[in-house]
Amino acid sequence: MSQLPPFAMAIGPRVRQSAFFDATVAAGVKSFTIYNHMYLPVHFGDPLAEYWGMVEGVVLADHAAQRQIEITGPDALELVQLLTPREMSTLPVGRGRYVVFTDHNGGIINDAVLLRVEDNKYWLSPGDGDVILWAQGLALGRDLDVSVTEPDISPLQLQGPLSPHVGKKLFGDIAITMGYYHCHFLELNGIPVVLTRTGWSGELGYEIYLLDGSRGTELWDLIMAAGEEYNIIPACPSLARSVEGGILSYASDITLEDTPFTIGLERLIDVDKPSDYIGKEALQRLAKEPIPRKLVGANFGGDPVGSNDKFWDVHANGEVVGRITRCCYSPRLEHNIALVNVPTDVAVPGTKVQLDIRGTLVDAEIVALPWFQSHKKIPEGI
């Protein structure tokens, strides 16, 4: 099967521009995709340079397509507890957690970074999907005293091993001393932001949440200027780095058919937490049963492969047994890698399978995830 031919897409105002849209255009963005009803930059002309910038240096990326959801009001915690199987009552103000949202069958509706910014105020950064409608529906159905809205909040990601140097230059020592998944309300030249030690890169980094969308270009320029001595470059979410790190993408690696057990996120479940949550009965049952399928890695050779435009088949013993969720060429490993969803007996490292790469069956070997661990600790002496 050949690649899709190039074609034009007609896009109107239903696809929104981020607070940093003009800044990314001025920086030379070459391609966009649509994510959460917004433009999301895909690359600035050289994805490989962006990859190495993220892995060895520092990059700045527009992630405002992580449309924020704000839950506030007297029953905010109750709604948050309903949304996720992870225990949230112990989350202090100024901290965050990675969470999944499940349906009544235990299937994953979405994943998100959840921040508790005040006693009765939470922010969610979900994947590609209309989580706000799910949260609003639960609030209405349970008659909860909460407001569920999309506030004027636009995240940038400052990522890479040199990001703490830039963060310190911008924000001072707090950027070095703050813990992983901590957040602080700050200002840059009078621009209101929230700084968090989070990100979707697997590298050291920060998210900088802009709280005034009218100042997007100003904030972008300030950060780029601060990073100039560290050779900062504009970048986009890296397919290769996320696959290498087993950093999952909603609607690709995570679908409604998957439970947290399938995709290796059972650590995010406090299955018997005292409070109610959607999917509790199903997840309690699934926790006692064998896991039928797992998301694992696969190594394969051949020419460098591009990303898959749909789920490609995984074959074992002459049968289609699973799907490739995402695949790419790894610059550091110097071979192709894939995330594959397969039966548990096939998911054992060392198992030989075949991958359907655009109509050609290619030999592959199952491996454990991830290929590269995430970096979380800021080195001393910065």
Structure overview:
With 382 residues, the protein is an alpha+beta fold. The protein has 3 domains: 21-62 and 152-242, Gyrase A, domain 2, CATH 3.30.1360.120; 69-145, Alpha-Beta Plaits (2-Layer Sandwich); 292-371, Aminomethyltransferase beta-barrel domains (Elongation Factor Tu (Ef-tu), domain 3). Helices cover 19% and strands 32% of the residues. The protein has a 6-stranded mixed beta sheet, sandwiched between helices. A 6-stranded antiparallel β-barrel has the order 14-17-16-15-18-19. Strands 5-6-7-4-8 form a 5-stranded antiparallel beta sheet, with helices on one face. The protein is globular. The protein starts with 20 loop residues before the first helix and ends in a 15-residue tail after the last strand. The model has no long low-confidence stretch (mean pLDDT 96).
List keywords for this structure.
382 residues; alpha+beta; Elongation Factor Tu (Ef-tu), domain 3; six-stranded mixed sheet; six-stranded antiparallel beta barrel
Helical fraction:
10-25%
CATH architecture assignment of the largest domain: 2-Layer Sandwich
> What ranges have pLDDT less than 50 throughout 5 or more consecutive residues?
none
Provide a count of the helices: 9
Q: Largest sheet at a glance?
A: 6 strands, mixed
N/C terminus separation: 51 Å
Q: Taking all residues together, what is the mean pLDDT?
A: 96
Q: What's the number of extended β-strand segments? A: 19
SSE arrangement, N to C: HEEHEEHEEEHEEHHEEEHEHHEEEEEE
* CATH homologous superfamily heading of the largest domain: Probable tRNA modification gtpase trme, domain 1
Strand content range: 25-35%
